[in-house]
Design brief:
It is found in: Cell membrane. InterPro entries: DUF3817_TM. The chain has one domain. About 80% of the residues lie in helices and about 0% in strands. The chain has four helices and no strands. It starts with a helix and ends with a helix.
C-alpha cells in the first residue's frame, strides 16, 4: 500500500504543477483551452485517488486524524505532496 500511496502522491503533485504551470497559462494567455481540459481531468482524478488512498493508508496504519489532515492539506499546496512524501512516507520505505 505504501508504494501505491507514494506513486499516487507524486503523480498528483506532477499533475498539479502541470495544471498551474502549463495548461492554465496556455488557457488564459494564449487562448488554448484543450490542454487545460485534459490536464484538469487527469488532475481531478488523481486528486480524488490521492484522498481515497490517503484515507485507506491512514486507516491501515492507524494514523491520527491530524496526520491525515496534514496529508490532505499537502494535496492543496504546490509541491505539498512532494513534501509529504519526503517527510512522512519515505521514512517508512
Amino acid at each position: 500500500m505504501l508504494k501505491i500511496f507514494r506513486a499516487t502522491a507524486i503523480l498528483e503533485g506532477i499533475s498539479y504543477l502541470l495544471l498551474f504551470g502549463m495548461s492554465m497559462p496556455l488557457k488564459h494567455w494564449a487562448d488554448i483551452a484543450e490542454p487545460n481540459q485534459v490536464v484538469g481531468m487527469a488532475h481531478g482524478i488523481l486528486f480524488i485517488l490521492y484522498v481515497v488512498v490517503a484515507v485507506v493508508f491512514c486507516w491501515e496504519r492507524k494514523w491520527s486524524l491530524k496526520r491525515f489532515f496534514v496529508l490532505f492539506v499537502a494535496s492543496l499546496l504546490p509541491f505539498g505532496t512532494f513534501y509529504a512524501d519526503k517527510k512522512y512516507l519515505k521514512e517508512l520505505a
